């Protein structure tokens, strides 16, 4: 998936990812600025907190669309495998950290880091799986 | 998949999930009792804290194995799309909650809940994805 820029499904995927990331960055800035400057409370605080989460759902929809549109079975398999590995690694890390938080009192893992952690694992697993299929 | 378990891969996956869920409860209670009775600190505390996470890692490994060995492409696609729904829902929830924690001072969500939240979203996504294929 990474290197196939001639692939129409991959091109569409990258374009959609770019748009979604742009919306994410925009909503993130809006949300953080609103929270730090205006200290909203009640319903407005919830709405502002949920705003940056919407493009995150969008990213998963974009990835689902890619898997549906991708004609190359190998590329699809690589994408699915990377999804499974990054999901597994993220859930493993949060679970282990969670038990350490509960029992050994390590610092609290800020939940907003889970999304970047997922993509770090995705970025690590992708080239490794790609190399295996070569 | 959960209504009529046909293939050996599905049976293995469901069995592993059920055993893992039981083991998590047993090991978490065991770890909690150990910490309460012996007040573990330092290096010995870490392996005991990590112990309840091991069955979770096992079930994630079994999920990957199921996707690798299941011959029915429909069942494979079903699980992949439910996992996409699961991780999308989880990342959106943790991000929104993370901002609420940081800015609106809602109660802390322990990282140990991320894994059950993921499977909750998988279960929610299951009938939606299944109905789309019908």
Structural account:
- The complex is a heterodimer of chains A (about 130) and B (about 130).
- By secondary structure, chain A is mostly helical.
- Chain A has one domain.
- In chain A, helix 1 packs antiparallel against helix 3 and helix 4 crosses helix 5.
- The longest helix of chain A is centred in the first third of the chain and has 31 residues.
- With about 130 residues, chain B is mainly α.
- Chain B has 2 domains: about 70 residues; about 60 residues.
- Chain B is built from 5 helices and no strands.
- Chain B is flat and about 55 Å long.
- At the A-B interface, helix 1, helix 2, helix 3, helix 4 and helix 5 of A face helix 1, helix 2, helix 3, helix 4 and helix 5 of B.
Low-pLDDT segments, ≥5 res of chain A: none
User: Which band does the percent of strand residues of chain B land in?
Assistant: under 5%
* Number of beta-strand segments of chain A: 0
Largest sheet of chain A: none
Q: Strand pairing plus helix content of chain A: what structural class?
A: mainly alpha
Number of helices of chain B: 5
The most extensive contact between chains is: A-B, 52 and 53 residues
Low-confidence stretches of chain B: none
Number of domains of chain A: 1
Question: What's the SSE pattern of chain B?
Answer: HHHHH
Helical residues, percent of chain B: over 70%
Shape of chain A: flat
- SSE pattern of chain A, N- to C-terminal: HHHHH
| Domains of chain B, number | 2
Q: pLDDT average of chain B, as an integer? A: 86
By DSSP, the count of extended strands of chain B is 0
Radius of gyration of chain A from CA coordinates:
18 Å
Oligomer: heterodimer
List keywords for this structure.
heterodimer; A: 134 residues; mainly alpha; 81% helix; flat; B: 134 residues; 2 domains; 5 helices; 0% strand
